[in-house]
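Need residues for this backbone.
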C-alpha cells in the first residue's frame, strides 16, 4: 500500500479508536465531533474527511470494504452455488473486520464489545440498523447480478442477503462474548456451512457455541 494510503488508514483507525474510547467513557450524547478530533490531534474538518458523523465512526463500514464485498459476491467461485460464494466472501469479510479491530490496538473482541455497549443509546441503534440495511442491500444486489436475476422480482437474493447479515451479526456477537477464542472468520465459515446444510441440530458450529451446564458439585 502506498505511504499516503497507509497514513490515511492510520488516521481513520485513530479516529475510530478515540471515538470508541470517549463514547465508552462518557456516553454517546456527551461526546462531540470536536472532542474526538481534539483527542486524535486533528481538526474537525479532517474528521469529516473520514466520517460523515460520529455514529459512522462507530458503525460506518468503509465504502471500500462494501465495494470489495460486492465484487467478491459477483466474481468469486464462478459456477458455484451462490450460497457457497456467500460463505467464502463473508468469511473473508469477517477476517477483515477482525484485522481492522486488531489494528486499533489491544484485544479486538474488547473493541467489538465496546461498540455493542455503545448501542444502548437509541440513536446509535437506529444508526447501526440503517448501516446494516445498506450492507444487506449491497449483498442482495450483488447476488442478483451473480444469478442474472432482478432483486425486485426474485426474492431469493434478498432472502440470502437477510440470512447473511443475520449469520454475521450472531457470529460477531458470540465472538465478542467468547473473548475472541474462536477466530471470527472460522466461526463465520462454520455458521454458513450449517446454514447450507439446513441448520441441523448436530451441526459443527454447536460444538463451539454450546457450553455444557455446570454440575451441581461445581457450585461448591
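Answer:
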Amino acid at each position: 500500500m502506498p505511504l499516503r494510503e497507509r497514513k490515511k488508514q492510520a488516521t481513520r483507525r485513530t479516529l475510530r479508536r478515540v471515538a470508541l474510547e470517549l463514547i465508552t467513557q462518557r456516553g454517546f450524547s456527551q461526546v462531540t465531533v470536536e472532542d474526538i478530533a481534539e483527542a486524535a490531534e486533528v481538526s474537525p474538518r479532517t474528521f469529516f474527511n473520514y466520517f460523515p458523523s460520529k455514529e459512522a465512526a462507530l458503525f460506518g463500514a468503509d465504502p471500500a470494504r462494501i465495494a470489495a464485498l460486492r465484487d467478491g459476491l459477483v466474481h468469486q467461485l464462478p459456477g458455484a452455488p451462490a450460497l457457497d460464494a456467500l460463505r467464502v466472501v463473508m468469511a473473508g469479510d469477517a477476517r477483515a473486520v477482525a484485522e481492522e479491530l486488531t489494528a486499533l490496538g489491544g484485544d479486538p473482541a474488547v473493541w467489538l464489545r465496546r461498540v455493542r455497549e455503545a448501542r444502548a443509546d437509541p440513536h446509535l441503534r437506529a444508526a447501526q440498523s440503517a448501516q446494516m440495511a445498506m450492507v444487506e442491500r449491497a449483498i442482495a444486489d450483488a447476488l442478483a447480478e451473480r444469478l442474472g436475476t432482478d432483486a425486485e422480482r426474485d426474492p431469493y437474493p434478498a432472502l440470502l442477503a437477510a440470512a447473511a447479515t443475520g449469520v454475521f451479526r450472531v457470529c460477531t456477537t458470540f465472538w465478542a462474548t467468547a473473548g475472541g477464542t474462536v477466530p471470527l472468520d472460522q466461526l463465520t465459515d462454520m455458521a454458513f456451512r450449517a446454514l447450507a446444510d439446513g441448520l441441523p441440530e448436530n451441526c459443527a458450529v454447536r460444538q463451539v457455541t454450546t457450553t455444557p451446564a455446570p454440575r451441581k458439585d461445581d457450585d461448591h
